[in-house]
Amino acid sequence: MNKRILLALGLIAASAIPAGAVSLSKTYSYFSVGGNTLDQIENELARHGPQVKTSNKRHPGATQMEFTTRLGYAKGTTTFASSFCQLAEAKVTLKVKIILPRWSRPRKAEQDVRLIWDTLASDIKRHEEGHVVIAKNYAREMERAMKAMGRQKDCETVLAKAKEIRSRILEKHDKAQEQFDRVESVNFERRIMRLLGYRLERMEAARRAG
């Protein structure tokens, strides 16, 4: 699940746009995984998992993100007849595509393999959704920083400062995503064992109640 997030950002100048918070568009796509045993499933993930541009490795899941920022300008003059430009609005749109595995669940697969797969698939989805939460937080930070820019001498300066803010916050975003992957990787085995234990307890409780 360690990976580099794919990032793209467009900066579009607009005359006027309505106020609003970060807009999120999220879609899911799936790749097929076969196999009756855990070893076979692992091999399938290694063969068919998504591959990102910054790595030759394949991963059990991936998240692709695109940040787009729309800027609305407002021009005016001061009491001393000097002109200025400022942002009337800054709106960040986050477009996300989450890629997840889908197991064919062959009839020959043992019950414990099915249990482990359900646990693993759930954790993969949770992990990818965690990347989205991080991206949303930094998209909000980007909006706030741009809105707080204040008056500038001209709109070219506004655009230049907006680009600087974008680059600085995206750099922080990348580092936060990488740190998230590192922490998740270190805790992976412990987390999966805890989740498996919890699912087994629920199954045993349901069996006794039945």
Summarize the model shown:
With 210 residues, this protein is α/β, with parallel strands linked by helices.
Enumerate the strands of the largest sheet in spatial order, edge to edge or round the barrel: 1-3-4-2
The stretches of 5 or more residues where confidence is low (pLDDT under 50) are: 1-20
Let me know the number of strands: 4
Structural class, please?
alpha/beta
Distance between the termini: 37 Å
The portion of residues forming beta strands comes to: 25-35%
Discrete helix count: 4
Q: How would you sum up the global shape?
A: elongated
Largest sheet: 4 strands, mixed
Radius of gyration over C-alpha positions, nearest whole angstrom:
23 Å
The SSE order reads EEHEEHHH
Helical coverage, percent range: 40-55%
Which SSEs are present, and which pair or pack?
Blueprint (H helix, E strand, L loop, with lengths): L8 E6 L8 E11 L4 H11 L13 E16 L5 E21 L7 H37 L7 H32 L1 H22 L1
Parallel strand pairs: 1-3, 2-4
Antiparallel strand pairs: 3-4
Helix pairs in contact: 2-3, 2-4
What do these coordinates show?
With 210 residues, the chain is of the alpha/beta class. It has helices at 38-48, 111-147, 155-186, 188-209; strands spanning 9-14, 23-33, 62-77, 83-103. Strands 1-3-4-2 form a 4-stranded mixed sheet, with helices on both faces. The protein starts with 8 loop residues before the first strand and ends with a helix. Mean pLDDT is 82; it is low at 1-20.
